[in-house]
Amino acid sequence: MDVRDNAERRRYEMDTEAGTAFATYRVDGSTILVTHSEVPSALRGRGLGDKLVKGMLDLARMQGRKVVPLCSFVATYMRRHPEYRDIHA
């Protein structure tokens, strides 16, 4: 499943069999503030949230952005994955 940056809607998106999983953000210079993440309810508990966040963080890194995880799910993921410490703002 590929994660894409839908800059027009200010969210990272991932298509799933039950709809779109997404993480919304605000931009502050080269920093993104991730405010909310959501996976279709029918698919919760299957690890798709982790895949969404990993893809989002990989894209943010490739875009040269830092990430402020205001969403608790994203914050927990980043704490558990120190390999993203370099993009944590």
Helix content: 25-40%
CATH topology: Aminopeptidase
Enumerate the strands of the largest sheet in spatial order, edge to edge or round the barrel.
1-2-3-4-5
Order of helices and strands: EEEEHEH
The CATH architecture comes to: 3-Layer(aba) Sandwich
Overall shape: it is globular
So what's the oligomer here? single chain
Query: Which structural class do you get from the secondary structure elements?
Result: alpha+beta
Major sheet attributes: 5 strands, mixed
The number of helical runs is 2
CATH superfamily: Gcn5-related N-acetyltransferase (GNAT)
Describe the structure.
By secondary structure, this protein is an alpha+beta fold. It has a single domain (3-87), classed as Aminopeptidase, CATH 3.40.630.30. The chain has two helices and five strands, in the order E-E-E-E-H-E-H. Strands 1-2-3-4-5 form a five-stranded mixed β-sheet. The longest helix has 15 residues, at 48-62. The protein starts with a strand and ends in a 9-residue tail after the last helix.
Strand and helix layout:
Blueprint: E1 3-6, E2 11-16, E3 19-28, E4 31-38, H1 48-62, E5 66-69, H2 72-80
Parallel strand pairs: 4-5
Antiparallel strand pairs: 1-2, 2-3, 3-4
Highlighted features:
single chain, Aminopeptidase, alpha+beta, 2 helices, 89 residues
Outline:
The protein is α+β, with helices and mostly antiparallel strands. Helix content is 27%, strand content 36%.
